Amino acid sequence: MPPWPAPAGSYRLTLVGGRSSGRLPEASGALVLSPSTFGPDAFSPSSNPLSGATDIDLRMVGAFAIGDPG
């Protein structure tokens, strides 16, 4: 496990997409991070074992989700 506490909690996340014409596309939403349910042996010493979810519509910035981001 890392020597610092994992930064679990609720955050405001803003994603900015690439420039298509003029203004950069932007999407904001909540990001919630929690300690992972995997055992500590599944992670390297430098990793933060967190899992999370967001409510951001990834299409707003030209991205796509592989699975449900929630």
Helix content: under 10%
Strand content: 25-35%
Assembly of the depicted chains: single chain
What is the makeup of the main sheet? 3 strands, antiparallel
Q: Would you count the extended β strands for me?
A: 3
* Average pLDDT over all residues: 78
Structural class: mainly beta
Distinct helical segment count: 0
Low-confidence parts, pLDDT < 50 over ≥5 residues?
Answer: none
The H/E string reads EEE
Described by the principal axes of the CA atoms, the overall outline is elongated
What Rg is obtained from the alpha carbons, in whole angstroms? 15 Å
In brief:
With 70 residues, the protein is mainly β. The chain has strands spanning 9-16, 26-35, 50-54. The chain has a three-stranded antiparallel β-sheet with strand order 1-2-3, with no helix packed on it.
How would you characterize the overall build of this protein?
The structure is a single chain. This protein has strands at 9-16, 26-35, 50-54. A three-stranded antiparallel sheet has the order 1-2-3, with no helix packed on it. With 70 residues, the protein is mainly β.
